[in-house]
């Protein structure tokens, strides 16, 4: 559980009075999901469904990932999306069922939100629930104890929980106590940036997803280019893990000192940047998370 830790919402610049409801609702959703997961014989598809009085149907669903029909007690999963996404969707739909079964939580949400915002909050909560089902606290804590807050821990979590690297990243970041920024980097085709004629074109190693531990106010925007001489680029090239003092390559060109742990995996690199404390000074807000 993450009680006692500052939820990220309170440090974000767009914190609103709603935060007063959202943080406890997330905590309650995590409790519901963790309790559900603890009662399962395992975390494979069949086991995941075993705690729910509902049937599971795979079918083509166009743009939709899945749905839960409480009336007929059916979980529908889009059969046309990749397996790891189906798995996260299954846990998400189970969370819808758990949420519908908690009258107190439901009425709190209906008191605090309405319309489209209510729908958004419910979707957010079901993602929180899905992460808690597929990545139990005990698993994350075990990996952090074994590998530290590292690129390796991120790769292991994605593999062991069988979730996407970005799902693993957000869950790992949330339970990391040290001032760490995580990133998943991959070779991608560069998008043209209006107003940035110097930006190279073609394929390059860029940030795909990034997120920090609670209290870390920086993040790397998706699409941020990794410089060729950076250890993350070297890890991709050599297929060898690299850990050394280096820097966070912000898009603005600013280099923030950090201990970099880069763990290559196929065409991606899982990275942790442990920020090194230094005296506070002005003008540091240009890359703050939005
Ligand atoms: Zn949903």
Your description of this structure?
This protein is α+β, with helices and mostly antiparallel strands and 290 residues long. The chain has two domains: 8-134, Arc Repressor Mutant, subunit A; 178-275, irre protein (Beta-Lactamase, 2-Layer Sandwich), CATH 3.30.450. It has helices at 19-38, 45-49, 83-100, 103-112, 115-134, 137-147, 151-161, 165-174, 231-238; strands spanning 55-59, 66-69, 74-78, 180-189, 203-212, 242-249, 255-265, 268-275. A five-stranded antiparallel beta sheet has the order 5-4-8-7-6. A three-stranded mixed beta sheet has the order 1-3-2, with helices on one face. Strand 7 and strand 8 (268-275) form a beta hairpin. The longest helix has 20 residues, at 19-38. The radius of gyration is 20 Å and the shape is globular. The protein starts with 18 loop residues before the first helix and ends in a 15-residue tail after the last strand. The structure holds zinc ion. Residues 92, 96, 123, 126 line the site of zinc ion.
Protein traits:
binds zinc ion; 3-stranded mixed beta sheet; G3DSA:1.10.10.1030; Beta-Lactamase; 2 domains; 290 residues; Arc Repressor Mutant, subunit A; 21% strand; disordered N terminus
Instruction: Strand order, main sheet: write it out.
Output: 5-4-8-7-6
Measured by DSSP, the beta-strand proportion falls in: 15-25%
The share of residues in helices is 25-40%
* Structure classification: alpha+beta
Write a concise synopsis of the structure shown.
The protein is of the alpha+beta class. Helix content is 39%, strand content 21%.
Question: What is the strand and helix layout of this fold?
Answer:
Layout lengths: L18 H20 L6 H5 L5 E5 L6 E4 L4 E5 L4 H18 L2 H10 L2 H20 L2 H11 L3 H11 L3 H10 L5 E10 L13 E10 L18 H8 L3 E8 L5 E11 L2 E8 L15
Parallel strand pairs: 1-3
Antiparallel strand pairs: 2-3, 4-5, 4-8, 6-7, 7-8
Bound molecules: zinc ion.
């Amino acid at each position: 559980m993450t009680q006692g830790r500052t939820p990220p919402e309170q440090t974000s610049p767009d914190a609103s009075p709603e935060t007063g409801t959202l943080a406890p609702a997330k905590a309650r959703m995590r409790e519901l999901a963790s309790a559900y997961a603890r009662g399962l014989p395992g975390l494979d598809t069949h086991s995941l469904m075993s705690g729910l009085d509902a049937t599971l149907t795979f079918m083509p669903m166009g743009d939709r990932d899945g749905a839960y029909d409480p009336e007929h007690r059916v979980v529908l999963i889009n059969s046309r999306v990749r397996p790891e996404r189906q798995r996260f969707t299954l846990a998400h739909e189970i969370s819808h069922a758990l949420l519908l079964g908690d009258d107190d939580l439901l009425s709190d949400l209906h008191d605090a939100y309405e319309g489209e915002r209510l729908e958004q909050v419910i979707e957010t909560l079901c993602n929180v629930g899905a992460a808690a089902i597929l990545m139990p606290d005990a698993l994350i804590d075990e990996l952090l104890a074994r590998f530290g807050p590292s690129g390796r821990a991120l790769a292991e979590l994605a593999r062991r929980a069988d979730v996407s690297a970005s799902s693993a990243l957000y869950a790992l970041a949330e339970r990391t106590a040290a001032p760490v920024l995580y990133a998943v980097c991959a070779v991608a085709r560069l998008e043209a940036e209006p107003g940035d004629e110097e930006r190279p074109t073609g394929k390059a190693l860029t940030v795909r997803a990034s997120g920090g531990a609670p209290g870390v106010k920086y993040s790397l925007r998706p699409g941020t280019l990794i410089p060729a001489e950076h250890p993350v680029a070297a890890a991709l090239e050599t297929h060898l893990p690299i850990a050394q003092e280096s820097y966070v390559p912000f898009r603005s060109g600013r280099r923030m000192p950090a201990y970099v742990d880069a763990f290559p995996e196929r065409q991606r690199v899982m990275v942790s940047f442990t920020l090194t404390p230094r005296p506070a000074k002005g003008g540091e807000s240009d890359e703050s998370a939005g």
